[in-house]
């Protein structure tokens, strides 16, 4: 705000107080200002439409002229406001500031979308608007205000992607969604880091919980059709059919299983009284200096726990090839690819936005809220989008491992 703006604001507030006016409320100063601004903008539009200013004699005999005003009630950020909309005799004036048939201005829709993005249901938004703006807004109006996000979401889901990604991570969050009956449904999230170190959410898909290779092939093929021709490293949980599908879509990709998920999954087969000790010893395995050192430490771990927890040992042995892959990298690469925790930070924001809802009425409603969370790039939060820390060091190391696949696409 400039000094001139601040002085004007102070003058308006002082005058309002001296005349006994409220700043807010039905006859408050703010509503009066909004009314003046909207009517002033409409008059300017009419002058531009007719080609002359109000009261200008140049308009005589022009073939069209002003024809009074019509009263209209619109919803604004300060509540409902009555405005006078100018008319022309030819009936050809089409206002843009407050379009014909519009009953709310753009900022009011944005307020509704903002509340929706924070996880409020349509009923809660309705109650909030009634309390803050003293206006009764129908749930249908709220739904229409958020429906415009659907087109934006679809365009985002179809946007072109980079040709090569250094890292692609895939994880899931579980939401309650109605499909005949309310059920827990996984929403899979793919986040990529391109060769410039930029992180971005590449796609989202609602599953049933029983996805296999066929479904994963379809979703990954969608990413390929949008432009991804090569992936250096794909990091994921051990989702059924996913590692094989990655190998089919991007044959040169190295598949790295998320170490954090592996530890969690293996602890399911152990007594809780042993969790702390097992987690401590497994840490020595996945922080080993090399694949050979990890094999040696796991052999020692197996000797201690194998007889008691053979299923736990099996989790690691069956996945060893995809677990050990990241241990050939130096620390600057390991910390990027050993876990999908970058998506976990996003999932925590998803949970915050969806916690208030008992369930979503359909898949589209769930995806809209998640998309709004992704779109809300707040500088004070750790976002999945943005620049990867110390990327220059990391990309140089990757170039040493992957050669032309990096260098030719930089």
Automatic annotation (TrEMBL):
One annotated GO molecular function: transposase activity
Keyword DNA repair: no
Region (Disordered): 52-73
Pfam families membership: Transposase_mut
Keywords per UniProt: DNA recombination, DNA-binding, Transposable element, Transposition
Keyword Disulfide bond (UniProt): no
GO biological process: DNA transposition
Family indicated by similarity: Belongs to the transposase mutator family.
Role according to the record: Required for the transposition of the insertion element.
Record PANTHER family: MUTATOR FAMILY TRANSPOSASE, TRANSPOSASE FOR INSERTION SEQUENCE ELEMENT IS1081
Protein name as it appears in the record: Mutator family transposase
Species assigned in the record: Actinacidiphila rubida
